[in-house]
Amino acid sequence: MTLNEAEPANPSLHDPVEAIVRAAESALTVRRRYQFFVWTQSYLSRLVPHQLAVCGCYDRAARELLFDVFNSVSLEPVLMDALADGRSLLMRHLQACWLDARGRPAAVQAAELPFASLGNVRDALLAARFATLLVHGVSRPQRPQEIESFFVFAVQDCAPPDSHMSRLELLIPHVHGAWQRVQAVERDFGGIAPAQVPAAKAGGVTQREREILRWLREGKSNQQIAEQLGISALTVKNHVQKILRKLGAANRTQAVAQAMSLQLLERGPRS
């Protein structure tokens, strides 16, 4: 199974209008970071497929856009750092491209990024097989230069067709509203972990379980993880079941999202 296992039951793959309505309705229930991650991996990814989502929200105290990165494939540190920093040359370039498009969804080609200033980041994007970045956001009314939220989506080995860009344009108010709500609720919680995940249980996640969580984030199956770690698929399955119990998660997607919220997936060497 992959991160997409959280997709809603009885999906309507052949009716994008109904899928958009469902995505909009379900967005209203999103209040925490892990819920947003699950929503993007299910309802949103059905309409705008992606393996990378970068979500930014203007922070009044910091007076700048602050970004979170949600990725289901491994990224080089130089790319992760650039995507997570609103002041990086990459994110400033992507915002400028969107503003040049007059607030419409824009497709930015990684190969066309300025080599002199973004060569390393460009190479990391191409190495991750993200040739095209789809960008969109929301600005303050009558003040297009004052960006309230900004989003980047990308899928490997595929340029977004016009239909995906049109869907994102329809959905952007709901993506914006859900992400703004998440920021407000997380501030109220002081950035602590979700209430249903006791700190003791989160602290009880072992290094081996964190390693398996990193592979789950990349969409690996039990057999694939077993081959990477030199253990049996049954042992991996047992580890996954323990992870689900410790994090209070119903499935792998929720477990990865919870782990991300609890900062259990910091980069580190795999054994």
From TrEMBL:
Residues 198-263 form the HTH luxR-type domain. Transmembrane segments: none annotated. PROSITE patterns: HTH_LUXR_2. Keywords: DNA-binding, Transcription, Transcription regulation. This is LuxR C-terminal-related transcriptional regulator.
